[in-house]
């Protein structure tokens, strides 16, 4: 494979993987606390539409980013209130969040343009690529890794930071405790509900940020169904990563790579019909999920936090 | 905060709240929608009136014998009922089938394939066999699309939420490929869609655009109700859903049940797809996958997985969808308003549901020192 092709594929891989990775890291944090939030797709698409709308009207991508984070966090708060305080079924609440978010994003996308017009087709501000001096000179990888937008660089920092906090610090230990054994965590004096609220909202914020990367950097602008299942792929990636932020990187690169190959093939004028290329990420998700589930079962490992999806009631015994 | 919310378990489910919660949820959702409409500069009262009249018609129209609005609501209620039943039977045993949309599309695809190609391949077949064949093809294709994640769940324990959902995208892209590509009507002026089916493959209409699919849906509801309440199989499904551990100890073959239930679930959604293409569009084209499979999740849950409840709730949510279309046509407001309201109703129901089982108490939080003293003492 020639060098230029490799660099081009790696560049698209990283760009495509970034929004996925933000969403995956967010969902890992949420699920680690014991809350399953299937609303990722809904929060992500709301993040995307609100980020673009805010950036479009203010002219500032950063206002867009902050809006997306806020919106993601607020939607996650609904889920947190329903599932933690009111102990509603987490699966149904998450699905409701996805349906609600997708509907609201579609509604807003048709009304938030200039003068109440649709946002579709509008051109707004976007994150430009920033070339990092020295680092971008690294042979082979420098060009692909360090000629990216700033949200990609944010990701480079976020992943090791999350990993470090999760496995090497006291707050990370507390997070894992409430997800594995909330009764023990409660006995230790931890505020189980409070921590679950915190990480559900934090997770929603990161998912919203992933949506912002889509509409402000990856494919700038707003189109109906912009996320096209990326939120669900992120949930699959959480399982793939066995709830470990470091392994999530591998997953996001794999899926970004599928996107990149799809992109390159289309650009090269392949005879494979576009529909089949577009199926790749979804088919790939199923195959990867089957393999990883089979492999983890074979190794007799349980990756999921033990209390995932189970509401916590102090009064009710384990 | 000096006050905190506390939940206390009720000894028995409250009948009054069981009635008040759905009503309150609807009102709260409408209130939220009103705020949203106001925010984008639309008149909530006029919008809701337009939705209501769009879905049910006006008394003046009824007197003139014009039931167009109501029949359109029944047209949309038909696939919602079938998919709602499909989803609810799977949810009964805690199999989260989010794939009714894809199963519906595959059912429509298979029925369409029969209608498009079989008359030419086998012209000697009597005409009356085509509709039953299309129904069988639709059921089989939907069931196959449902069994695949069922098998993966039963034997490899792969998360079915993800697999059923991913299969939706694959089915939709597959159908798009066909009517944009190889199956496109050469005489269709470039319009994406297949040629129209021969008229003898059309489902008979009952009134307005309401077709025989509505009868399928009612029969399916009776069938599901009989299975769940009168058969051993139904008992096993309910037991697995209520207590999987006990079910396993009772010697129930869970893997076998997952596959059977997904056959039934996918088959019903596939039948919905068949009814849509044979009863409404009479061709394969854009507009088959419009989210019935997702709305069906809300239908199933609001109906508390009860087959008769599904029939009623499907009708009500269909009215919401038709009302949404109506405000798009007459007021230029996004039809997605209906989806927003659906989601909001579901949220409120989810939150309100707890009130039937628990009493919500606002309690005064004691200052930390007092608690400490009490604990030490």
Structure commentary:
The complex is a heterodimer of chains A (318) and B (377). Chain A is mainly alpha-helical and 318 residues long. Chain A has helices spanning 3-32, 40-58, 61-85, 90-109, 141-145, 150-168, 170-180, 182-187, 192-218, 230-240, 245-267, 274-298; strands at residues 130-131, 147-148. Chain A has one domain (3-123, 142-298): ABC transporter involved in vitamin B12 uptake, BtuC, CATH 1.10.3470. Chain B has a domain at 75-311. Chain B is 71% helix and 5% strand. Chain B has helices spanning 15-39, 44-56, 59-63, 68-92, 100-121, 130-156, 160-180, 213-230, 232-242, 244-249, 254-281, 292-302, 307-331, 337-357, 368-376; strands spanning 3-9, 205-207, 210-211, 358-364. In chain B, strands 1-4 form a two-stranded antiparallel sheet. In chain B, strands 2-3 form a two-stranded antiparallel sheet. In chain B, a hairpin with a 2-residue loop joins β2 (205-207) and β3. In chain B, α2 packs across α4, α5 (100-121) crosses α12 (292-302) and α8 (213-230) packs across α9 (232-242). The longest helix of chain B is centred in the C-terminal third of the chain and has 28 residues, at 254-281. Chain B is globular and about 85 Å long. Classes of the chains: A mainly alpha (318), B mainly alpha (377). The interface between A and B is large, with 48 and 46 residues.
